[in-house]
Design a protein that fits this description.
Layout: H1 5-14, H2 19-33, H3 38-43, H4 52-62, H5 67-71, E1 73-76, E2 79-82, H6 95-104, E3 110-114, H7 120-128, E4 133-138, H8 141-153, E5 160-164, H9 171-175, E6 183-186, H10 193-196, H11 219-228, E7 238-241, H12 247-257, E8 264-267, E9 273-278, E10 289-290
């Protein structure tokens, strides 16, 4: 079916994609599969493009299959990452965690990225901190292979150590040879099991294991705070991405498991609590740190 920028935007809107997103997605699809360039699309919104690749891509997107998987790549924190159904799609919310890590991890150390997925956290930090090395822990071999590929794509593969292990079981033992770490970073699964079924359609195509955080959404946080903290150098930061409504629960959990450490909560640009930091306290002028209680 032939599409113009105007008609494709409308089709995407009708399928349930918000207006602003539909317009940007129409541009991306026409650029990738219609042989168009952005300037031409914006100058002539009714020009028709008709290729079999575009037709197939649009059909998949109208079924709410994620745009990022259709494109096969996505940008995150100034880097480009290959993405597919083996990994969670990198999201802007996670960039706060990356910025905190880039700014505050100690010099010349080795940090660990737990549940690395596409590798977007570890690779982005390594790209901006050439003094650091990273260990990337991931349960699934295909997902870990994707993280390694993304490290190569962004020129940091020589500083990324992939480790395939289960965070909830043998992960700690697998990391001992590389400890102590100058920091622990993680965006673990944190959506409560009962909530997963009600998520937006696109999320049903993303790996369930990367979303489901157990009955209360906290199973991975408990394990990280109880088992992985001892692998860190004294005073090293532990940075965890959290759900928008988990700040109080994570602060309470941290205080219970590590009573001598005061957690700090940082908001993302949308004003939602997004990262909890344990360890050496630090301030970020461009973000608000908030009282979790």
């Amino acid at each position: 079916m032939p599409y113009s920028y105007h008609s494709l935007s409308l089709c995407l809107e009708v399928s349930g994609i918000p207006t602003h997103d539909a317009r940007e997605e129409a541009l991306l699809l026409l650029e990738a599969f219609g042989g168009a360039d952005r300037v031409s699309l914006l100058c002539d919104r009714h020009r028709i493009y008709d290729t079999s690749a575009l037709d197939k891509a649009v059909e998949r997107r109208l079924s709410r299959y994620p745009l990022q998987y259709i494109l096969g790549k996505w940008d995150f924190y100034g880097c480009t990452f290959r993405v597919n159904e083996h990994c969670l799609i990198p999201r802007p919310d996670t960039e706060l965690l990356v910025e905190l890590a880039i700014t505050h991890l100690p010099q010349d150390g080795v940090f660990v990225d737990l549940c690395t997925g596409s590798g977007c956290i570890a690779v982005s930090v390594l790209k901006h901190r050439p003094d650091l090395k990273a260990v990337a822990l991931e349960l699934f071999p295909d997902t870990l292979a994707l993280a390694v590929e993304n490290a190569k794509l962004n020129g940091v593969a020589d500083r990324l150590i992939p480790v395939c292990a289960d965070l909830l079981n043998e992960g700690k033992e697998a990391l001992v040879p590389y400890a102590p770490f100058c920091g622990i970073l993680s965006n673990p699964p944190y959506i409560p099991t009962a909530v997963v079924a009600g998520l937006e359609p696109e999320l049903f195509f993303e790996p369930h294991a990367a979303l489901d955080g157990g009955e209360d959404g906290l199973i991975f946080y408990r394990k990280i705070l109880s088992d992985y903290w001892p692998l860190m150098s004294p005073g090293a930061p532990l940075l965890l991405e959290i759900g928008f409504d988990q700040a109080k629960a994570l602060s309470a959990l941290g205080k219970a498991l590590m009573p001598s450490v005061t957690p700090k909560i940082y908001q993302d640009l949308g004003g939602n609590p997004r990262v909890v930091a344990f360890g050496t306290p630090f301030d970020i002028p461009t973000y608000h740190n908030v009282d979790p209680v």
